[in-house]
Recover the amino acids of this structure.
């Protein structure tokens, strides 16, 4: 009978315990910007689910030099950067992008680009973090 509250507690916290959070480091060009990457492994297929959130990130046209888009990239350990998509910021300077990758050890970073069609990241890296899931 005493084990029932323990089981209820475990079931209530279990879905959340598998989520890890990684804080992104901002470059000097956007010192007020912050970012957070929530990482969860899909138990069904082993893929890595990422939810990338940014805060205090101004419209890319306000950067110096101006850009048109913010692009999220993943660079697997020892590999080339892979474009994940554009992250849009709203009028409150917040944005979210959800992606899925097979990588468990990689850099996640955001660049300012002249076009959403960029195929390689520019040198203007604004936010970055390294994730590693064991």
């Amino acid at each position: 009978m005493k084990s029932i509250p323990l089981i209820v507690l475990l079931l209530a916290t279990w879905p959340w315990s598998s989520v890890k959070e990684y804080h992104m480091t901002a470059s000097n060009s956007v010192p007020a910007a912050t970012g957070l990457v929530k990482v969860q492994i899909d138990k069904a297929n082993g893929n890595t689910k990422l939810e990338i959130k940014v805060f205090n990130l101004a419209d890319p046209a306000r950067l110096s030099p101006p850009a048109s888009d913010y692009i999220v990239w993943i660079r697997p350990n020892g590999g080339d950067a892979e474009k994940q998509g554009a992250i849009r910021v709203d009028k409150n300077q917040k944005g979210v992008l959800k992606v899925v990758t097979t990588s468990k050890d990689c850099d996640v970073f955001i660049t300012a680009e002249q076009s959403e069609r960029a195929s390689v990241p520019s040198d203007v890296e604004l936010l970055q973090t390294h994730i590693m899931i064991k």
In short: The first strand starts at residue 20 and ends at 26. DSSP finds one helix and eight strands in the chain.
